[in-house]
Amino acid sequence: MTFQRQPDFGTRASREGAQVTLTIDGRDVTVPAGTTVMRAAAEQGADIPRLCATDSLEGFGSCRLCLVAIDGRKGTPASCTTPVEPDMIVRTQTPHLAKLRKGVMELYISDHPLDCLTCAANGDCELQDQAGAVGLRDVRYSSDATHLGQAKDHSNPYFDFDPSKCIVCSRCVRACDEVQGTLALTIEGRGFGSKVSAGLTSDNFLGSECVSCGACVQACPTATLIEKKVVEIGTPERAVVTTCAYCGVGCTFRAEMRGEQVVRMVPWKDGKANRGHSCVKGRFAWGYAQHQERILKPMIRASIDQPWREVEWDEAFAYAASELNRINAKYGKHALGGITSSRCTNEETFLVQKLVRAGFGNNNVDTCARVCHSPTGYGLKTTFGTSAGTQDFDSVEDSDVMLVIGANPTDGHPVFASRMKKRLRAGAKLIVIDPRRIDMVRTPHIEADYHLPLRPGTNVAVLTAMAHVIVTEGLADETFIRERCDWDEYSHWAEFVSQSRNSPETLAPVTQVPASDLRAAARLYATGGNGAIYYGLGVTEHSQGSSTVMAIANLAMATGNIGRRGVGVNPLRGQNNVQGACDMGSFPHELSGYRHISDGETRRLFEADWGVPIDPEPGLRIPNMLDAAVDGVFKAIYIQGEDILQSDPDTKHVSAGLAAMECVIVHDLFLNETANYAHIFLPGSTFLEKNGTFTNAERRIQPVRKVMTPLNGLEDWEVTQRLAQAMGLDWSYTHPSEIMDEVARLTPTFAGVSFDRLDAEGSLQWPVNAANPDGSPIMHIDGFVRGKGKFVVTDYVPTDEKTGPRFPLLLTTGRILSHYNVGAQTRRTENVVWHPEDLLEIHPIDAEDRGLKSGDWVKLASRSGETTLRATVTDRVAPGVVYTTFHHPATQANVVTTEYSDWATNCPEYKVTAVQISASNGPTDWQEDYEALSERSRRIEAVSAE
Amino acid sequence: MNSTEKLVMMANQIAANLAHDDDPAKATAEHIHLFWDPRMKAMIDAHGEAGLSPIAASALTKLDQPG
Questions:
Q1: Closest Cβ opposite residue A624 in set B9, B17, B37
Q2: Which residue of chain A comes nearest to B21, CA vs CA?
Q3: A312 exposed, middle or buried (CB, 10 Å; 0-12, 13-18, 19+)?
Q4: Cα A188 from chain centroid (whole Å)
Q5: Which of A23, A363, A539, A807 has a CA between 20 and 30 Å from the CA of residue B33?
Q6: How far is CA A462 from each of CA A194, A353, A531, rounded to the nearest angstrom?
Q7: Does the beta-carbon distance from A334 to B39 stay under 8 Å?
Q8: Given this model, what pLDDT does residue A1 score?
Q9: ipTM of the complex
């Protein structure tokens, strides 16, 4: 694909159904009612000159360049704000219009630096294009009073702001308002003094409320806001559409390239997950792909106290295979296992689980979803019949009430958060259930109708109390329940939730949520129109994570909020391919498509295709693998793209498990923390260097396309295949499309998926099969996958993790906007400017009790371990609750988290740890010891010059 | 907490959360059957009823006869 900007139709497409026919420049045009004259003209190929209009924003009518003549109408209306009407006759080009436009453009150019040849946007500048389009040949005005020569703002690490080039079209301000919803930018001053400002006059971009989503840069028609990479490299010469490798929103981007160098990542307007928007991670934080710390050669060592030795691929595979075969022979096949990655493609994930099942001969395969959304898999499969969010992202446009529980969308899923905020600004209601006052509770032009700041660990109690209100006040949708759910199970559940012990008043001392607020929130959800529930890891990472998911499903079924647009149960997936990794059979009890390993018919399908027997017994989950390792019976592991030492709970136990193994193979981009305990390191490839697919939180399967040659020489699926071949497996894939063909062959919900279809259609939402040939944006429309929806009694069972005199506070953990998971990628980008270290949030009362102030070093201690970090005093958290992130290995927040986990899935209870906070004057012994170990373990043997 | 102690805790957790099932012991046994690997099942079996709740202890007797 050679470089072209994406077509811009000037204003948004109309969603109205009625059609209107008019005449533009002598041609009949039929478009939906509500379409602007500008867009109608653009759709038939007539580009009306414009500057303040772009199709990601509402029409504004300020630049006066898009004027048209309309028969029977006075003057020259702006085409960007004039809707089409039946039989309207429009002319876009007349001598009078040409003169007007040239005059307007002459004024713009009279106050613009004429440095086009050396401007970074030369050839990619709408002002330049439009000056040509209107035929401007000279400028008659003097340049005595101009805005030229103003200081540039270079403060943002990713883009520059040059006010001298600004034409005050307000596109950046409107993008920040309408698309991102942060409202960080404004037009300061009036008339000739008008200028774009990031908040207060004293603010620069970095110091402002700007979240660096890039919407303003994308909207800017000049070089006023421009990516530093374009300034540094030059304009791109080709573009490839691919999918972001950060969160579960799954934004699609045009990787705009010059040679094999990425110039910039521009959100793809046709992307159905992101609709042309982006966040600071996907838009800008891809520099890690070329970071100097990337490991590009395989390395091996006999023991972890030795330095690494670089080897060629053949030697690495031969050594890995010999070690795995040795351990198999010595300890038996159940001593081996593997972990698939939610950061890798579906095809890569499928191969890793296939290697374990067909090569190692057991089901000891698990994935990082174990520590995030495994309860979603259990809960939604039990209640609805499949582990799937029920809606597409577009559905939120029809939501009347959003219930956000245990999720922090503005930080974790920022692009979808912008969609949510847009709907909220348009009048939808919001209920937030979270111990912490997340940004969505109160942000510009948005205020939650109810924030229920529950005590960590009481999700089930809160949701059951909401169910109590709905049932006892007669708010349940009996028609829906009788038609779609098992009535007997509903009756049993309704009897349970109606008990007085489940009333908001009875449970208030436990949940710490005022009963009146809880009752009002329940009534709003049940009666406020289309109610949609969005949830995250604040639901799943608890001892009752699976129960909470089922309690959410119960609420949705009880109120009939399932099976149409605007409603549903929507897990916001953490990593880019959590959904896909689970779909691909990464769990030890399931084959792809969520079919239990004990199902003989499914096993026989795989056995016939793979030519090997499949073990009918479930394998070990990640925490079980580590326990077995400590017990001395689990000896070898192949870990693709996951850093369990940093991401998994109870770090000391994880390190003990890894240290007890004889062969740890880490396949990753960097020497991550887990690699400190590894014997073989296989260098990985970034999402820019491979082909495959990711599946996002709305079950949308999207292409990942190679835009550059892998720096390590191999795509990740090739690495797994070479390892399998070295172990004697007869694999011969030549392209990942063949792996997807195998997935489709073996997985009913993927039956209609192929690379050809994905390339043609952009994306597909599973199930894609004979019953749903074009995919399934909304699930359970006519019935649940399991038949009748199942109500499950979810009794509140308090966690065993208790506060007490030694550990009187509750720690809950989470993530922030600028970093992703363990930070392995984002810490190696300029994003560190926003979050250079993990901080501990503590309430002023608790800080006062301990004599702490913001910026102080504090010791964070639990029964598992202790670490130190700086405190930030804030009333975002309630008294008795502290919060931190886990993005930095120097902190290792998981030294403190415990072995407690969800009852059904072993998903760790990250969100509830009893801790104590005290002043500190230095790192803990663990931190010092770990730093020394890490330094020792990362040594690489010098290569001889001979 | 060693591996056996963890398994006891896990079995009790499962039993507590399935206490409202029509047959909690059977549901607990089924859950363990579907999600635990053979070594974990063998370990809890070998450990016996010590420390197990009544439902979990009853489930233990049904582990060999799932379904």
A1: B37
A2: A793
A3: exposed
A4: 34
A5: A539
A6: 50, 38, 17
A7: yes
A8: 47
A9: 0.96
Closest approach of A363 to chain B, Cα-based (Å): 9
Q: Is A620 on the interface with B (CB under 8 A)?
A: yes
Sorted by sequence, the CB contacts under 8 Å of residue A375 that are 6+ apart come out as A539, A540, A545, A546, A548, A549, A902, A904, A905, A907
Neighbouring residues of A204: CB distance < 8 A, sequence distance ≥ 6:
A153, A155, A156, A198
Helical (H) or strand (E) element with A367: strand A365-367
The answer to whether A886 touches A838, Cβ cutoff 8 Å, is yes
Angle at A523 between CA A521 and CA A527, to 5 degrees: 125
Q: Looking at residue A141, what is its pLDDT?
A: 87
Both tokens of residue A561? 């909020």
Shortest distance, CA A630 to any CA of chain B (angstroms): 9
> Could you tell me which chain A residue has the CA closest to the CA of B15?
A903
Query: Minimal Cα distance from B14: which residue of A?
Result: A903
Is B34 an 8 Å CB contact of chain A?
yes
Best B31, B36, B55 residue to mutate vs chain A (most A CBs within 10 Å):
B36
Alpha carbon distance A380, A504 (integer Å): 25
Chain B CB within 8 Å of residue A589 CB: yes
What is the C-alpha to C-alpha distance for residues A31 and A39, in angstroms, rounded to an integer?
9
pLDDT of residue A943: 67
Confidence (pLDDT) at A563? 96
**Residue among A668, A656, A591, A651 nearest A341 (CA):** A668
In this structure, what token pair is assigned to residue A603?
A: 């096993």
Which residue in the set B6, B19, B20 is minimally distant from A899, CB to CB?
B6
pTM: 0.96
Restricting to A residues 352-371, those with a Cβ less than 8 Å away from any Cβ of B are 363-364
Whether residue B14 lies within 8 A of chain A, CB to CB, comes out as yes
With contacts defined as CB-CB under 8 Å, which chain A residues touch B36? 618, 624
Say what the pLDDT of residue B1 is: 87
A631 touching B (Cβ < 8 Å): yes
Q: Kindly state the helix (H) or strand (E) to which residue A761 belongs, with its residue range.
A: helix A755-761
Given this model, what pLDDT does residue B65 score? 53
User: B9 contacts in A (CB within 8 Å)?
Assistant: 800
Mean pLDDT in consecutive groups of 10 residues from the start of chain A, 946 residues: 82 94 96 97 93 96 96 96 97 96 95 92 94 93 82 96 96 97 94 89 88 97 97 96 96 97 97 97 96 97 96 98 98 98 96 98 95 94 94 98 97 97 98 97 96 97 98 98 97 98 98 98 98 97 97 98 97 93 97 96 98 97 96 98 93 96 98 97 97 97 97 98 97 98 98 97 96 96 95 97 97 93 93 95 98 97 95 96 92 91 95 96 90 93 67
What would the two tokens of residue A447 be? Answer: 């205020």
**Which of A 279-338 lie inside 8 A of B, CB atoms?**
334
| Confidence at residue A3, expressed as pLDDT on a 0 to 100 scale | 73
The contacts of residue A93 (CB under 8 Å, 6+ apart) are A25
Kindly determine whether residue A617 and residue B37, on different chains, have CB atoms separated by under 8 Å: yes
Residue B66: predicted pLDDT = 44
Closest CA to A814 of A899, A881, A902, A743: A881
CA B11 from chain centre, in angstroms, equals 4
How far, CA to CA in Å, does A861 sit from each of A128, A272, A807, A896, A898? Answer: 60, 45, 8, 6, 11
Residue A940: half-sphere exposure toward Cβ, Cα within 13 Å: 14
What is the least distance, in Å, from the CA of B65 to any CA of chain A?
14
Query: Looking at the complex, does the CB of residue A488 fall below 8 Å from at least one CB of chain B?
Result: no
**Is A429 strand, coil or helix?**
strand
- Cβ proximity of A368 and A342 under 8 Å: yes
| Dihedral of alpha carbons A471, A472, A477, A481, sign | positive
Cβ(A371)–Cβ(A645) under 8 Å? no
